[in-house]
Amino acid sequence: MNDKILVVEDEKDIADLLEVYLSNEGYFVLKAENGSDAFNYIKNEDVSLVILDIMLPDTDGLTLCRQIREKYLFPVIMLTARNSDMDKINGLSMGADDYMTKPFNPLEVVARVKTQLRRYKRYNTAEVETIPEYDKNGLYVCKDTHKCELYGKELSLTPIEFDILWYLCERKGIVVSSEELFENVWKEKYFSNSNNTVMAHIARLREKLGDEPRKPKFVKTVWGVGYKIEG
Ligand code: CA
Could you count the other beta carbons within 10 Å of the beta carbon of residue 40? Predict the structure, then answer.
């Protein structure tokens, strides 16, 4: 998905210029002319970065930046009209990540947006990766809450069914053998008849997922190897 950049600037020419350059780079640009519109976007859209002018009609960029920082971590780049060191120092102490002085070169703004987003994402990756959930094709599974939803409706799975499903979700895209599944879910040694146990549970799980045994959408059979869920 394209990153959404919110440009908060009442000078239309500047906002439009930034929109052109940022759109060219594939960003989705939202424009707000004042602080209250800006906050509406921030609340309702999944904003990745804000470019914030200091001089706004209903508030000033420094106050807005401080308010953003109370709740959000995404990068903020300040635009300042005057070449005043005070603005820069204030901006950074209010939690801005970078600043640019007008008149600016739009390409430089784009470069700084890229840098900030890269930094921000690197910083957040560790956090994102630890959320143990699977969300694809209408199937949502969360390990922590033990929740399984199909097209938004909660399914009631037995603990074993949930463990099978989660084991496959955790290894999405990878084929898991019947033996591996059995030993990790049941935590017992695998014998030749264990395969029947696995098959019976897979069948019940598929039933709950509305999966047709011959053409399952979620829990797929890889003949002679095992099972997998699409990654
Ligand atoms: Ca302005």
Answer: 12
